[in-house]
Amino acid sequence: MNSRSYYLYIGALAITFFGNGLHSIGLVWLIYNMNSSVTDIGWFFIFSMLPGILLAPIAGVISDLMSRQKLMIITDIFRALLIIVLLILFNLNLLNLFIIYIVTFLIGCFDKFFFPASSALLREIVEEKELFKANSFKNSAIQVGLIFGNALGGFLIAIVGMNAVIVINLLSYLLSAIFIKFITSNYFPLRKQKINFKLKESYSSFSTSLREGIAYLKNKPSILQFVTISASLELVVRSMNILLLPFLITILYLDSKAYGLIDTAFAIGSVMGGMTSSFFLKKIGKSNFLPLNLFVIGISFITFSFSNNFIIPFFIYFLIGFNLVQVQSFVTSEIQKQVKIEFQGRTHSSIHFILSIMAVIITPFISWLADSLSLRLVFLLIGILVISSAIWSIYLIKSKLILVSTKSN
Fold first, then answer.
1. Main-chain phi, psi angles of 36, to 5 degrees
2. First vs last Cα of the chain: how many Å apart?
3. Are 6 and 126 in contact (CB under 8 A)?
4. d(CA 379, CA 243)
5. Where's the Major facilitator superfamily (MFS) profile domain (predicted)?
């Protein structure tokens, strides 16, 4: 894992998510300043999620048919071009909600090609025994990128304006592409096959590969059970994104500064969780690692529901970030180990597809619950659901419905 290629890979991801953080903060700020409408911001997030449903399986097929390294570079370049379009239109005072939504959707499309390819590329440059540690540091790098992207985005808007945010976002994608260019990979499974982009031939090639991927997953029930665990994590993430701000304002009577600090606590927890995950995995043991982390997340949500001041939410969000990244690293590593390398792209893309559907379903459902019930009760119910997921994971591991690798990480 101490290879030059791995560090270039980590650097590229950190820079990419730094750009994503800037993009999100900058465009949300723009949208809100156009109409002061929370509904408009909601549509922004819906447009960012739609590509996950429409393109994830196809993106995985492409990442298995061509160089994952080249695919990541291409997506970085096209995302940079879209940011250039935003920059020009912004300076010509022609930017409107429709254009922002379309650009957001297109960037999301390229994201859905980038991320399955990046997961598969990691498997190429890191040995199997190092995967858990590699994924842990990868997740930490992503959180570091987001922390600086979110923090600097707000700071730059206040100090030097939106132009600087757009330009730095543009440079982040170009720098990521340069880092990826110098990664060395010795894996060439299907890359000599030329992808024919004629409609009929490409459809036949993609559909055949997708059928093979689905058939492969059907014979891997352990992976499907890991996906159910990932679905519970999706519930956690969406709930945190939707419920935190109204809880702080309407229940604790705190302001946006508190919101920013608590969100930062989550990100710092994620970084520290990623850095220490290998240590805790060895101490706790693989069979106990997943259930214990899920229990802590569930109890944290329940504790949060009884919060009466700033301190408890700050500490709880740090703890959730710490444990959530450990579960994500563990689940990702186990899936990577149990999937043949030539099926990595399709598998990860299919999982992204399932979780994107979950996100679109969960987001309005949680919003409806928050409007219909007490916010404290919603946090309490989510905590109970996550604890139920922890109990379910114990059953799956004990009954060997989830296969946990015995090789050390």
1. 50, 40
2. 11
3. yes
4. 8
5. 1-401
Q: SS3 string of 307-373? A: CCCCHHHHHHHHHHHHHHHHHHHHHHHHHHHHCCHHHHHHHHHHHHHHHHHHHHHHHHHHHHHHHHC
Q: What's the topology of domain 1-185?
A: Growth Hormone; Chain: A; (1.20.1250)
Distances (CA, A) of 124 to 28, 91, 244, 343: 36, 42, 38, 12
Confidence of residue 199 (pLDDT cuts 50, 70, 90): very low
What average pLDDT does the structure give for the chain? 79
Distances in Å between the Cα of 292 and the Cα atoms of 133, 167, 218, 406 are 19, 43, 28, 18
Nearest-CA neighbor of 124 among 183, 60, 210, 206?
A: 183
Q: Say what the pLDDT of residue 198 is.
A: 41
Question: pTM value?
Answer: 0.66
Residue 195 DSSP label:
P
Are 119 and 352 within 8 A, CB to CB? no
335-377 pLDDT per residue, tens? 778 777 777 766 776 776 777 777 777 777 777 777 777 889 9
Parts of the chain belonging to CATH 1.20.1250.20: 1-185, 216-404
Helix, strand, coil proportions of the chain in percent (round to 5)?
85, 0, 15
Q: What is the CATH number of domain 216-404?
A: 1.20.1250.20
